[in-house]
Amino acid sequence: MNLSRICLAILGLALSAPLFAAPVTPPNILLIYADDLGYGDVGCNGATQVKTPNIDRLAREGLRFTDAHAPSATCTPSRYAMLTGEYAWRRKGTGVLPGDARLIIEPGRTTLPSLLKQAGYHTSIVGKWHLGLGPEGGLDWNREIKPGPLEIGFDYSYLIPATGDRVPCVFVENHRVTGLDPQDPIQVSYTQPFGNEPTGLRNPELLKMHPSHGHNQTIVNGISRIGYMTGGKTARWVDEDIADVLTRKAIATLEQRRTGPFFLYFSTHDIHVPRVPHPRFQGKTGLGPRGDVIVQLDWCVGEVLAALDRLNLATNTLVILTSDNGPVVDDGYRDQAVEKLGDHRPAGPWRGGKYSAFEGGTRVPFIVRWPGRVKPGTSSALISQIDFPATFASLARRPLAPTDMPDSFNVLPALLGDAATGRETLVEHAGPLGLRSHSWKYVVPSKGPKRNLPTNTELGNDPAGQLFDLAKDSGETNNVIAAHAEVAQKMAAQLEELRAKGHSRPGFQPAP
Q1: What is the mean pLDDT of residues 204-226?
Q2: What's the Rg (C-alpha) of the chain?
Q3: Model pTM?
Q4: Burial class (CB in 10 A: 0-12, 13-18, 19+), 464
């Protein structure tokens, strides 16, 4: 072959290579996990009543998914499934937990952070946990708090133990409550109040935000919570400062990880109740506190993105922004979220929301950015957060053992935009289970109310079962189960098989 032909061959190879080629070194991973953020709550998904310029920037510079899902329509099971690669509905005790629950991920099992740790990553979590802490039989909040995140694969943790509306209202760093005075020990109960400790039920005059349903027990920072707590006065958080505290901790974690790959799970409190934005965000929208904390969340995103830029980490950092479940408007406090909702549609075009078997329960914002590798655009691939373990293992070149991650699929080509399709099937979890298969959505027959009355959320219960063709009916308004009984029967059998097998990942083998 003469020189001109060699040059032409080299040129041909160069032109045929993908523009966004995979780098040799696996990237850092920053997972920004919002709480109760709906598909339609962000500008890049159609919101106009609230501005989210930093999230929109992430979408503009990355790949925005329109059919990506949380594993469940509520928080604890979504987080459990995301970290273990196992559908939460397979395990008892994975529902929404009280603030004093034991750790529900058993130490020693393979998890998302332990996989990445084995692959050489430094692993951190900053923010909401809500997967329980401590052993069976109770936890002394004044001593070492373990087992917890450090026992399931994280190198560092700075936590809200449960949720903002549940006691204890303190931060936990690694194994200790921060700022605790040993002379003022913490006690927590979810059954009995402590002496004359003020509660929202007995002392409404002390409240700066009143409950709409429930949430009337111990008062912290002028807000009554779920559960009873006494002591720990110096350690208690101030709700208005939570976003600042967590964002500073997340940035400090980035600053300490300037060498070697890292995985940071930045699990924000916003936009969960109680919605108490910092004064600089109050009144920034016409939607009341719910809209204002969306703006606050967007600020948090902007701060961590700016830190990546400042630290020269952005180019080799895969950033994912998503949410643990769909949106809810009134979730327990009178914060004007209903009255000021106006034309804003938190779930976007989807029906339902948090707690719901309809698409709004699990179809959530999902954006992936990796400069130079992920081509900006939009993807309709069906993917789920339960796929993070298998997908990140592939990204980090750490093969899964046959007994790891029973329901986690490797969807790396779809996540990086190299493939237009992801999963073929997905189980959606609320009250009744639903099965997605391409554009078909089957919801099993279920008894129960049509709506969750306190939150006014459509739950998706129907004693006859439901079948929707999302390609023709994205709003799930037309139940076609009678007209397509054979499709429903096939999907019902498929779902039952998935339940009976105990796993769905190809190649998975149950431990002997």
Answers
A1: 98
A2: 23
A3: 0.95
A4: exposed
Residue 34's nearest CA partner among 333, 257, 330, 300 is: 300
Nearest to 239 by CA among 269, 202, 197: 269
| Cα–Cα distance measured from residue 160 to residue 154, given in angstroms and rounded to the nearest whole number | 15
Q: Where are the domains of the chain?
A: 28-181+235-415, 187-230, 425-501
| CA pair distance 353, 253, nearest whole angstrom | 33
The domain made up of 28-181+235-415 is a member of CATH 3.40.720.10: yes
415-442 burial, b for 16+ CB within 10 Å, e for fewer? bbbeeeebbebbbbbbbbbbbbbeebbb
User: What residue has token string 């429930």?
Assistant: 214
Q: Which two tokens stand for residue 362?
A: 């699990």
Domain 425-501 CATH assignment equals 3.40.50.2300:
no
Taken in order 375, 377, 380, 384, the sign of the CA dihedral is positive
What is the CB neighbour count within 10 angstroms for residue 195?
6
Which residue in 426, 495, 431 sits closest to 463, CA to CA?
Answer: 431
Other beta carbons within 10 angstroms of residue 399's beta carbon come to: 10
List alpha helices for 288-434, DSSP H: 288-310, 388-395, 412-415
pLDDT per residue as tens digits for the range 302-350: 999 999 999 999 999 999 999 999 999 999 999 999 999 999 999 999 9
pLDDT tens for 245-300 read: 999 999 999 999 767 899 999 999 999 999 999 999 999 999 999 999 999 999 99
Q: Which amino acid is at 388?
A: F
Beta carbons within 10 angstroms of residue 341's beta carbon: 17
Element (H, E) at 83: helix 75-84
Could you tell me the two tokens for 263? 């995985």
Residue-wise pLDDT tens digits, 36-55:
999 999 999 999 999 999 99
Which among 140, 144, 146, 131 is positioned nearest to 101, based on CA atoms? 131
